[in-house]
Amino acid sequence: MSEDRERRNASPARCDVQGCAQPSKEWFTVQQPTFNVCHTHGERLRSGESHTAHGSELSVGLDDPGELLGVRWSKTAEATVMVLKLGHDGVVDQEVPVRVTSQLADLLRVRDGSRSIDSDASR
Ligand SMILES: [Zn+2]
């Protein structure tokens, strides 16, 4: 239970996610740098939550909403999968597969009006 003196500026090691004051418990690597993150953010990041590195800080989730740049559909034997293409400034940096239930597919069709569910949603 000694203080983590080797941490920068002898400050207690906190989660590097913007606005998070939780102590860091694990590491999360984005390309080159490794960030100290708390358990909650570690789980969220590992599950693929949108994030962007700003120097030594990460912004995650609602603080870093990706732009929905397009949607790709693919069908497996069991399910329809909607792949959300997320990114920033028009560049896709993440593809998030989402299983689409038939109920949701119906809902999307209704909300989308005349457009088919198979159309590309990129603007
Ligand atoms: Zn955190």
Question: Total number of β-strand segments?
Answer: 7
Bound molecules: zinc ion
What is the distance, rounded to the nearest whole angstrom, between the alpha carbons of the first and last residues?
54 Å
- What structural class should be given to the helix and strand makeup? alpha+beta
Mean pLDDT: 77
Query: SSE order in H/E notation?
Result: EEHEEEEEH
Provide a count of the helices: 2
Largest sheet: 3 strands, antiparallel
- How many domains comprise the coordinates? 2
As a whole number of angstroms, the C-alpha radius of gyration is 19 Å
Q: What is the share of helical residues? A: 10-25%
The parts where pLDDT drops under 50 for at least 5 residues are 1-10, 116-123
**Oligomeric description of these chains:** single chain
Structure description:
- The strands form three sheets. The chain has a three-stranded antiparallel β-sheet.
- The radius of gyration is 19 Å and the shape is elongated.
- With about 120 residues, it is of the alpha+beta class.
- The protein contains two helices and seven strands; from the N terminus they run ββαβββββα.
- The protein has helices spanning about 40-45, 100-110; strands at about 25-30, 35, 50-55, 55-60, 65-75, 80-90, 90-100.
- About 15% of the residues lie in helices and about 35% in strands.
- The chain folds into two domains: about 10-65; about 65-110, no CATH class.
- Residues about 1-10 and about 115-123 have low confidence and may be disordered.
- Zinc ion (ZN) binds near residues 17, 20, 22, 37 and 41.
